[in-house]
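ugh ok fine here u go
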Amino acid sequence: MNYSEWKMNIFLPLDEVWFGNDIVDLEDPDTSLDHLNQRFIQKIGTPNEIEHFFSTLEPLHEKLILLWTIWALKESAYKAISRTLNLHSFRYKDYEVLPNMEVTKYQNLFLKNYIYLDKKKTF
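structure:
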């Protein structure tokens, strides 16, 4: 069987000690275009992220990658921060991915994002 698999891997180091990662498989049915609906986007996005998302005039597939990148960056930031600050609850709107996608903000913390997109073929 020949198929393409896209994986997204995000690392958020802070002070060379804090680290979080997340992987999104864009071939998984749970990451389908069905998630490009306003209710889902408003559930995970801050007002600035929602405005950025809806103002982007990219093709649907690229919007899907943008949505899951925001999702994964927030998950990664939570993992990095929760391990250090011992957080036990997670709300997507507490984390904001800045429009350049280079930084995720949580309260007064700014975490540098490293995004790795990998397209692999498996037989």
